Structure formats: C-alpha cells, structure tokens
Amino acid sequence: MSDDLDTVFAALADPTRRAILAMLLEDDMAVTDVAEPFEMSLAAISKHLGLLDRAGLITRERRGRVTWCKLEPDALRAASVWMQGFGQFDHLDLDALERLIEGDVGATADGAP
Known about the structure:
Elements: H1 2-12, H2 15-26, E1 29-30, H3 31-35, H4 42-54, E2 58-63, E3 66-71, H5 77-84, H6 94-101
Antiparallel strand pairs: 1-3, 2-3
Helix pairs in contact: 1-4
C-alpha cells in the first residue's frame, strides 16, 4: 500500500500532471488533445501520461489510430483516506500547505505575516 501511495503522490507532485488530471475531469480525451495546451513535445506529454497510468490515475485505450485517456477517480481513494487521517487533529488547510510547499511560509489567508 505504501508503494502505491508513493506512486500516486509522486504523480500528483507535478503541476503538468495535475493539470492533465483536471482536464480529464471534464471528459475522456485523445492524447493529442491533452497535449494541445502545453508547450512541450508529444513525447514529453506521453511520459507524463505514462506516469499517471502507472499510478492508476488514468487509463489509456487505443481506439483505431487514436489513444484515449480516461480519468480513474477511484485511484485517489487511498490517498484521500490517508489524508483524512490528519483531519482528526485539525482542519487540513490545503491553501496553507500549498504556500508552504511554494516557500511562502510567512503568508496567511488574511495577508498578515
């Protein structure tokens, strides 16, 4: 289970992969459509998709000449359950966590240092 969680969190650590997952929330997409908004090669997008696929966050299916990507929301269940374990102590402030990760530790929600 720990290895699975590590793989999911590693996949979620990259902003490009998080953006891809957000796009796939809307609908299944062809790989070329997934790649369109990003300023990187199709090969680079394919590597991101491969990591998401290995993490179980998406599945890829070949339909004729086109490869389609589909979000697999159940793959986030274990990560969600793990994070909810911290809810017993205090409300998890994801905005504060994001600021911490980005190195803006001194900022607060109301703008005070």
